[in-house]
Amino acid sequence: MMKVLIHHIYEFQKGLRSLVMHTLPSRLTEEATAKLRHYGIDYHLQPCVQAKVNIYFGASACVAVVRQITSGKKLGEMTHEEDFVLGSMLGYDIQKQCERYLKRTGVAPASLTIHKCA
Q1: Ranges for the DUF2023 domain (predicted)?
Q2: pLDDT above 70 for 111
């Protein structure tokens, strides 16, 4: 678990990611946050499923948005829009994020009208 965290930190430091979500056992939270503090990386903790925690870390502005979106919520409690924004910020495939949003809101992609230019 910590090797993956170190790799995520490396990717952030090299500019490959602006925001990372890393899930790990709660018992490793202190060790993980100590690493992030050591490197001066902003982070936010979100309780996850039993005995696990999500650590969001990266650019301070991104982490500030995550704090606002996830405040007091678990991932499954977020609105469709919050889920979409968070997934997009984490760099998930934007087309898949759009399809996920449409599915969650009950709009089937086939029912969308395609507008063609004249």
Answers
A1: 3-104
A2: no
